[in-house]
Automatic annotation (TrEMBL):
Belongs to the cytochrome P450 family. Pfam families: p450 (PF00067). It comes from Svornostia abyssi. This is Cytochrome P450. The lineage of its organism: Bacteria, Bacillati, Actinomycetota, Thermoleophilia, Solirubrobacterales. InterPro entries: Cyt_P450 (IPR001128), Cyt_P450_B (IPR002397), Cyt_P450_sf (IPR036396). Gene3D superfamilies: Cytochrome P450.
Length: 416
C-alpha cells in the first residue's frame, strides 16, 4: 500500500513547491515534478517550510547543472554548510569531522588515505567474505515462503559486511544497521531530530571508541588498525577523526546498498522477462546493476553551500545559500536516457547515483557494486522463481527515498 501524495505534480504551481516536504516522496521520488522542474525551472527555490534550521534552498534538477556544482568545490562548498539539507549544528559538526563535510585540502588528504583501500582491486579481495555472508542469509530464509526483503533479508547482510571490514562483532549488527536508518530518518524529519539523534550519536561514538581502544591494544590487519597507523603530512589521525570516519562509513554505506538492492529487485520482479534473462545469463548482472542504480538512487540528494554569489540556470544563487543536487531527477533526464522510466538491463547508462563526479564522489562505489553483484547473483541463483507477494511501500523521505517494504514469495530453493 502507498500513501496518496497531496499534490497533483502535473499542474502544481512551481512557485509553491517545497521539495523538503517528505509527503512529496510518499510514492517514491516525485518524477513528474522533477520532469517539470528540469523543463520549466531547473534551478528552483524551495522555502523549506518543514526545516527549522534551513531558511530555504535551491534545487538543481538537470544532470549537467548537478555536475557543474559537484565539480566546483570552491564555489559550492561541502564544509560551509555540510552535505545535508539540515543546518542543525550537531549534524554540521559531525559531517565536518568526517570527509563528507570537508573541503580541500583537508578533504583531499583524508580521502587519498582511504581511496587506496577502496579501489575495485582491493575491494575484490572481500568477495569470498561477502559471498559467504549472503549465502548464509539465503540458507536462513529457506522455507520461509513469503518474506519482506527490506526487513528480513538485507539488513543482516550489509551490517555484517561492515562488521567484517570495520571489525565489530555480530552482536552489534542490529544496532549498527538501525543507527544508519535512524540517522537518515532523523535528517529527513527536519526539526524533530535533536534529542533522538543525540542518543544515537552517543551510542555510535561510544561503540566506535571501544573499537578504536581495542585496536590500539590489539592491532591487526583491519581498517581501524590501518587508520591508527595512517599519517597525513606526518601526523597521525586523532581518535575523534577515526570515530567520525567509522561513523560516516557505517551511515553512508549501510542503507544505501540495501535500498538499491530492494529497488532493483522490485524492478526485475515487475519485469519477469528481464528477471529471467539474468537467471539464464548471470554474466549480464554487472551491466544490469548500472540500470538498477539509475532507476533507484539510494540518496535523493546531497547538498553544497555557495561561497559567493553565482549565476546558474538563469538564477542568482547568493553566498551562503544551500544548493541541493537531486540525483533521481538527473537519472531520469530524457535527453540523456531515452524512455527513462523503462527498465532496460542492456542499457548500461551513466548515472549520478554515486554523485556527479568531483571530489565527494562516493568512496564506497566499488564496494557497493561488488555487494550488489553478489546479492543479485546468489539470490537469483537460489530463488529463480521468486515473485512479488503484494504491494510495496516507500520511505516517504526526501533523503533516502527507497522502498520500506518489498514482500516477495521465494518459490523453491535451487542449489547448484
Ligand atoms: C549503492 C550504494 C551507495 C550509494 C547509492 C552511495 C551514494 C553516495 C553519494 C550520492 C555520495 C555523495 C557524492 C557527492 O556528494 O558528490 C556518496 C558519498 C560517500 N559514500 Fe557512498 N553510496 C553507496 C555506498 C557506499 C558504501 C558501501 C560506502 C562505504 C564504504 C560509502 C561511503 C561513502 C563516503 C565515505 C562518502 C563521502 C565521500 C566524500 O565526501 O568524499 N558509500 N555516496
Amino acid at each position: 500500500m502507498t500513501t496518496a501524495t497531496p499534490l497533483d505534480f502535473a499542474t502544481v504551481d512551481l512557485a509553491t513547491v517545497d521539495l523538503g516536504d517528505a509527503s512529496y516522496f510518499a510514492d517514491g521520488p516525485p518524477h513528474e515534478l522533477f520532469r517539470r522542474m528540469r523543463e520549466e525551472e531547473p534551478v528552483h527555490w524551495s522555502p523549506a517550510r518543514n526545516w527549522a534550521t534551513t531558511p530555504g534552498f535551491w534545487s538543481i534538477t538537470r544532470p549537467e547543472d548537478i555536475r557543474t556544482v559537484s565539480l566546483d568545490w570552491k564555489t559550492f562548498s561541502s564544509e560551509a554548510g555540510g552535505a545535508a539539507l539540515s543546518n542543525d549544528e550537531i549534524f554540521l559538526a559531525f559531517q565536518r569531522s568526517g570527509i563528507i563535510g570537508m573541503d580541500p585540502p583537508r578533504h583531499d588528504r583524508l580521502k587519498g588515505l582511504f581511496q587506496r583501500g577502496f579501489t575495485p582491486k582491493r575491494v575484490a579481495d572481500h568477495e569470498p567474505m561477502i559471498r559467504g555472508i549472503v549465502r548464509r542469509k539465503l540458507d536462513e530464509i529457506e522455507g520461509m515462503g513469503t518474506i519482506d526483503i527490506v526487513e528480513d533479508f538485507t539488513p543482516g547482510i550489509v551490517a555484517r559486511v561492515f562488521g567484517s571490514l570495520v571489525s565489530y562483532g555480530p552482536e552489534l549488527d542490529e544496532n549498527m544497521s538501525q543507527v544508519a536508518s535512524f540517522a537518515f530518518n532523523a535528517i529527513a524529519a527536519g526539526e524533530d531530530m535533536d534529542e533522538a539523534v543525540q542518543e544515537w550519536v552517543v551510542w555510535l561514538v561510544k561503540s566506535a571508541l571501544a573499537l578504536v581502544n581495542e585496536r590500539r591494544e590489539n592491532p591487526c590487519d583491519d581498517l581501524v588498525s590501518a587508520l591508527l597507523e595512517a599519517e597525513i603530512d606526518g601526523e597521525r589521525l586523532n581518535t575523534a577523526e577515526i570515530i567520525a570516519i567509522i561513523a560516516i562509513l557505517i551511515t553512508g554505506g549501510n542503507d544505501s546498498t540495501r535500498s538499491v538492492f530492494a529497488g532493483g529487485l522490485y524492478e526485475l520482479l515487475r519485469h519477469p522477462d528481464q528477471f529471467q534473462a539474468l537467471v539464464d545469463d548471470p554474466e549480464k548482472i554487472p551491466t544490469a546493476i548500472e540500470e538498477l542504480l539509475r532507476l533507484h538512487p539510494a540518496f535523493a540528494h546531497f547538498a553544497r553551500t555557495a561561497t559567493k554569489d553565482v549565476e546558474l540556470g538563469g538564477k542568482t544563487i547568493k553566498r551562503g545559500d544551500k544548493v541541493v543536487l537531486w540525483y533521481p531527477s538527473a537519472n531520469m533526464d530524457e535527453a540523456t536516457h531515452p524512455c527513462p522510466h523503462a527498465l532496460d538491463i542492456e542499457r548500461c547508462p551513466e548515472h549520478q547515483t554515486f554523485g556527479a563526479g568531483g571530489r565527494h564522489f562516493c568512496l564506497g562505489a566499488a564496494l557497493a557494486r561488488l555487494q550488489l553483484k553478489i546479492l543479485f547473483e546468489e539470490t537469483l541463483a537460489r530463488y529463480p522463481e521468486m515473485t512479488l507477494a503484494g504491494d510495496v511501500e516507500w520511505m516517504a523521505s526526501p533523503v533516502t527515498p527507497g522502498l520500506s517494504h518489498l514482500p516477495v514469495r521465494l518459490g523453491p530453493a535451487h542449489r547448484s
